[in-house]
Amino acid sequence: MRTIFNWLRNLKEWVENFAQRPGAGWALFVVAFAESSFFPIPPDVLLIALGVLTPKKSFKYALICSVGSVLGGMFGYLIGYQFFELIGQKIISLYGVHAEYAYVQRLYNENAFSAIAIAGFTPIPYKVFTIAAGAFEVSFATLVYASLLSRSARFFLVAALFYVFGPTIKPFIDRYFEILSVIFVVLLMLGFIVIKWLL
């Protein structure tokens, strides 16, 4: 567990250093785009670092993150729709999310829009939802509209936190990083259980 925390803290510090460089907004866009289709690291890490450094620009970065994520979701849809056998299956296997993929299929059979709309608040990687949407031929418009709702809500919620509290929240995060990491994971799991019960 200590090794995991050390790795997370090192990643956090690396991202914070990167956030101070020119072009951080573009980097945020690229990470958000890639994470929605194939990349493992969520854009929240960089979004939070940028929010801490420049809280007044938090909503600007949330917008960049949202646009990149939705466009990346479209790319994930393309992978699932046209290249599932060639690429999609390898991505699912790489991250070991076969069970999650099957679960998302069941959600899509019940209500695809609702499934995608709450996707941003579950521990299931968003790329699973986008690739599965293409593979199961969910309406492309449904993916786009639900993604706009889901991803924007998630990223603007994070931005609002740092816009309101600003840099004053950074010492708190640094001091209680390990505890906050555990709480974050627990909340994600509880959210997943609640959503599964509702659907």
Keywords:
199 residues; mainly alpha; elongated
Question: Mind describing the biggest β-sheet?
Answer: none
Number of strands: 0
Shape: elongated
Order of helices and strands: HHHHHHHHHH
Short description:
The chain has 199 residues and is an all-alpha fold. The protein contains ten helices and no strands.
Can you describe this structure?
Helix 6 packs across helix 7 and helix 6 (98-117) packs across helix 8 (140-165). The protein has 10 helices and no strands. With 199 residues, it is mostly helical. It is elongated. The mean pLDDT is 79.
Element layout with pairings:
Blueprint (H helix, E strand, L loop, with lengths): L1 H18 L4 H12 L8 H10 L4 H25 L1 H12 L2 H20 L8 H10 L4 H26 L4 H6 L1 H22 L1
Helix pairs in contact: 1-3, 2-4, 3-4, 3-8, 4-5, 4-7, 4-8, 6-7, 6-8
